[in-house]
Write a structure and sequence with these properties.
By secondary structure, the chain is an all-alpha fold. The chain has three helices and no strands.
């Protein structure tokens, strides 16, 4: 079974030049780094979604702030497109406002 944290080895497409070999090493390092960041991003978004589903406006507000921070950082690091981050923030804010309106009534 393939373990995802190990470096990938693709024997059919091995680099020949020194610079290409270095590029492969850099790409692998970046892939693993981005993978952990993407996982953290998804976890933060899930926490917000669970707070919304639970109907807890106070917790949802706290999770929203955390998620916005993580989304902005992901967009600045090119982990996520800036417009995609903005779209997610907008949708989350819409859900948060709907929850606040529902709990106020």
């Amino acid at each position: 079974m393939f373990h995802c944290d190990r470096p990938r080895v693709n024997r059919s497409n091995m680099a020949n030049t020194k610079s290409a070999k270095k590029s492969l090493r850099q790409n692998e390092k970046r892939r693993l780094h981005n993978r952990t960041r993407r996982s953290a991003l998804r976890s933060t978004l899930k926490k917000f979604r669970l707070a919304i589903e639970a109907g807890d406006a106070e917790l949802a507000t706290a999770q929203f702030r955390a998620a916005v921070k993580v989304l902005d950082k992901a967009a600045s690091k090119n982990l996520l497109h800036a417009n995609a981050a903005s779209r997610l923030k907008s949708r989350m804010n819409k859900k948060l406002k709907a929850l606040a309106t529902a709990s106020a009534s």
